[in-house]
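Thread: "does anyone have the structure for this chain?"

Original post by V.I.:
We have the sequence but no experimental structure in hand. Need at least a predicted one for the grant figures.
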Amino acid sequence: MTKILLIRHGDTNFVDEALAGRIDSPLNSLGIEQSLRVSEALKHLPIIAIYVSPLRRTQKTAEPLAMELNLNMKIEKDLNQVDFGNWQGLSFEDLVKDPSWTTFNQNPALTQIPGGENGLMVRERVTKAILHLSRQHPDNALIACFSHGSIIRHTVSSFIGLPLENLNQLRIAPASISTLNITNGKGKLIHLNQELPVNWL
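Reply from O.Q.:
Generated one for you, tokens below.
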């Protein structure tokens, strides 16, 4: 079995305002504070490896924990955010005017992101990445993967058998922690969207 902590990056100025996608947006002051909370919450755990997406908001969120544990961050390209194509950078105010965006939120399985990835492509690459990491770190190893809300939703839903059309029914908050155990390629969800401090609503 491999125990995997799935951690979304901290807050940026894009969160809840616009679709950052692969724009390399930095953490804002709240995001920096959240990264310290994550480190404080996890520093006592026997984490043996830290993986990050290629975008610096994940790397900066992971940095305090990596320093605390004296671990090098390893970039895993398949943990990168969804390629949102023509939607990238648009405000949510503008996106709601696009009927395809509405369809995407209601059923991602039916929507090809204009100029970007489709849901099956994303699910395939993140599943492959997590299986690869689990094979690299067997025997009850604990690893931390710092990534993006959409990627964590795809990861969790893939390994618990949640259909792609239900993807957006999962909420993954900034700097939240979800825990997934992988055994023989099968997943068991232990925690979902643990916020720091705990937010019951």
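V.I.: this helps a lot. Residues 119-136 form the longest helix (18 residues).
O.Q.: and The mean pLDDT is 95.
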